[in-house]
Write a structure and sequence with these properties.
Elements: H1 2-26, H2 38-50, H3 59-73, E1 87-94, E2 99-100, H4 103-117, E3 120-130, E4 133-143, E5 154-165, E6 172-179, H5 190-200, E7 214-219, E8 224-228, E9 231-236, H6 255-269, E10 286-289, E11 292-297, H7 299-302, E12 317-321, E13 324-331, H8 337-353, E14 363-366, E15 379-384
Parallel strand pairs: 1-6
Antiparallel strand pairs: 1-2, 3-4, 4-5, 5-6, 7-8, 8-13, 9-11, 9-12, 10-11, 10-14, 13-15, 14-15
Helix pairs in contact: 1-3
């Protein structure tokens, strides 16, 4: 029993040590993991060293704090809220927009966000990143009030929370948030303010229709890394094959072929080409991928392919896309083949820069009907990647 206990304790210490090494490495990489955030690291290092701790927290303390903070952060924006007992009364909080030097101010900021912006918070991981430092990786999505923001923008941030722990009390003494989308993490840096304004004044519109679910794992200045859930589609061809786009290619696909594909899929969802004549709800987006066009089908209603009404058209195939990791870049305007080609080239360039390996053809996603003002349209290029790591 003593040997087993000792072995388990050693394993826990190794695990915490691995997290500490991994966390430090994570802040030195970009793309597959978070970019170096010099300002935040300097702040965190200063805070940790000021405590005077040399050996760092024990494995037991490390695991206990990780469990407590992971549980606490599930209540970040709900009615229960965070537990004051985990934080020093004079905890300092800094992110690129806000700064507080007390738990009361920290809590005020959280309550304000909850009431005004209705955020959703997803914690992806929690690990040790220093002798007395624990970090979390997260995604936060929030909306703005309908007045005066009538275009209903959605703001998405991903990043790292670096929490300095007081060795004497084992409470959070400092909390520094960094965003993946900016380099200058200093409070009220022009880059941070510009990032917020860019997202606020994104006028592209996403229809209030069912769409494939995904989580933004990393939001960089240039593109997003998303984890898609599986989703159902009705598929036929041809569509715009963005893999084969070349400079000087015609700006539009053959209208007759596009019309045939669209009409075949519309016949299926409107009940003219499925068994039982079931009329289905509209969804978004329309995907074109590898020369084929896809309409998304409601997974909330049908759950799986075998529960979908069978197609009575030889041109329409029903299938489930498995989801997975993708990089995505949004653009507005009319999604001509030339515009899609340009965005795909940019996206592949960013992936190569950040060490991400693309693992399949690009797809064009178009969210709006043809009558939507081109300036308000949401179009995207998405490409699967195989080696993304948090």
């Amino acid at each position: 029993t003593t040997t087993t206990t000792t072995t388990m304790a050693m394993a826990t210490m190794v695990r915490c040590g691995v997290h500490a090494v991994r966390g430090g490495a994570a802040r030195r990489r970009r793309g597959g993991a978070v970019d170096a955030r010099a300002g935040a690291e300097a702040s965190s290092a200063t805070t940790t060293s000021s405590f005077g701790a040399v050996d760092g927290m024990s494995a037991e303390t490390c695991e206990g704090l990780k469990r407590a903070l992971a549980e606490d952060l599930t209540h970040l924006f709900d009615a229960k809220g965070i537990d004051a007992a985990l934080y020093a009364s004079d905890v300092s909080f800094t992110d690129p927009l806000t700064k507080y030097d007390s738990f009361a101010g920290y809590k005020f900021n959280i309550d304000m966000l909850r009431e005004v912006f209705k955020p959703t918070y997803t914690m992806h991981d929690i690990y040790q990143t220093g002798p007395w430092e624990i970090s979390t990786r997260w995604t936060m999505v929030m909306g703005l009030p309908a007045f005066p923001f009538m275009w209903k923008p959605t703001l998405t941030f991903t990043g790292l929370s670096i929490m300095g722990i007081d060795p004497e009390t084992t409470k959070v003494k400092t909390h520094v948030d960094t965003w993946d989308s900016i380099e200058n993490q200093k409070h009220l840096s022009p880059e941070g303010v510009a990032e917020v304004l860019k997202q606020i004044f994104d006028f592209s519109q996403t229809p209030a229709l069912e769409t494939p679910g995904y989580t933004v794992m990393k939001k960089f200045a240039d593109y997003e890394v998303r984890k898609y859930d599986s989703y159902l589609v009705a598929e036929t061809g041809p569509g715009v094959d963005v893999r084969e786009m070349k400079d000087g290619a015609p700006t539009k696909m053959d209208p007759q072929a596009a019309g045939q594909s669209f009409n075949s899929l519309a016949g299926y969802i409107f009940g003219k080409a499925n068994e039982g004549g079931a009329k289905m709800e509209m969804t978004t987006p329309v995907f074109t991928n590898s020369g084929r066009m896809q309409f998304v089908l409601s997974k909330d209603k049908y759950e799986s392919v075998d529960k979908l009404p069978a197609s009575t058209s030889a041109a329409v195939e029903l299938k489930e896309e498995s989801g997975g990791m993708f990089i995505a870049k949004k653009f507005s305007g009319i999604a001509t083949d030339e515009a899609a080609n340009d965005v795909e080239k940019q996206l592949r360039k960013f992936a190569a820069r950040d060490g991400l390996q693309t693992s399949g053809p690009a797809a064009l996603a178009q969210y709006n009907d043809p009558f939507t003002n081109p300036l308000l349209r949401r179009n995207e290029i998405i490409i699967p990647v195989s080696n993304f790591e948090m």
